[in-house]
Amino acid sequence: MELNSKKLERTSRIVYYSISIILCLFLILLSNRIIDDLDSATTRPEVENFENKILIKELLKKSKDLNNEIDNVIIKKNSIEKTISTAQANYKNEKNSFDNWIQTRKTLGSPNKDNEVVTRAKTLDEYYKVEQDWRSQLNFEQNEIDIKRKKLLIVQKSIEKENEVAYSKYNNELKNYELKVFLIRLLFVGPILALGIFFFIRYRKHKFWPLYFGFTLFSIYTFFFGLVPYLPSYGGYIRYAVGILLSTGLGYYAIKTIRQFIENKQKELKVSTIERSKNVQTEVAEKALENHFCPSCGKDFIIKKWEFPLKNNDTDTYKLVTDFCRHCGLILFVNCKNCGNKNFAHLPFCSSCGTNSTIEK
Q: Which among 69, 150, 188, 349 has the fewest CB atoms less than 10 Å away?
C-alpha cells in the first residue's frame, strides 16, 4: 500500500536532513583531528632559531655593563652637584660677610691699606676656586656620560641589526612553513571537495541521498573553514581560481539541466494527452491537485470569474474547474466508473467509493 501522508513526508524530510547534518558533524570533528595531526608533520619556525645567540649575548652583556657604568657616573654626578650647591652656599655666605665687613671698614677707616682686606679677599677667591673646580669635575663626568651613552647607542643598534637579520630569516622560513602546511591541507581537502561535488551531481536523487548530501556539506565546510583560513598571503589566487571553477562548473550544470528540462517539456507537450497521462507520477499528481496546477504543463487549471463570463448572475462559475487543461489539453478530472463521482484523473483511487485506478495508465 502506497502512503501519501503529508505528515509522513514532512517527517521523512526532517529525518533525512537530520541524518545529513549528523553525518556532516562527525565528519567535521574527525577531519579537524586529522588536520591537526597533519600540521604536526612539519615544525613551525621560531625567531630564536635564527638569532646569532653568541654575538647577541655579548652585545647584551656589553649593553648591561655600559648601563651600569652610566648609572655609577650619574650617581657620582649627583654627588658633585650637591657638593657644588654646598660650595655655592659657602661662597655666598663668605661674600656677604666680606661685603658687610668692607662696608664697616669704609665707615671706620681706609680698607685699601689694611692687610686683613687682602687676606679675606683671598679666602673668598679660594671658595670661588673650589666651586669652579667642582664644576670642572661635573663637566668631566657629564662628558663621560655622553661618551658612554654614544657607545651604548652603537651597541643597541648592533642588537637591533642582528634582530632584523634574524626576523628576515624567520619570515622567509615562516612563508615556507605556511606553504608546506597549505599543501598538506590541500592534499587532504582537495580530493574531499572533488568527491563532494561528484556526489552532489551524481547522487542527488539516489535513495541514500542524505548520506551523500551530508558528505557534500562536509566537503564544503572543510574547504572554506579547514583550508581557506590557512592560505598563504598569495593564496587568494587559489581561492579565486577554485571559486571560478566551481561557479563555472555548477553554472554549466544548472544551465544544461534547465535547458534540458525545458526541451523535455516541449517534447512532452507534443505527445498525445493519453501518453502524457500515463507518465504522470502519483507524487506529482498529489502536489498538482493540492496547488491546482496541471501536472503536465504546470499552469493553473482553475478558471477565475474574470476569465469566465458570468451568465444570469451564475456565481457557481467562480473558480470553475474543467475536465481538461485549457493550456495543454491534458485530462484532469474523470467520473468514477463505479459510482460516477468526479475525481482527479491522476490519483489511483476514487474519493467516494475507493475504486482502484480511475484512469488507465
A: 150
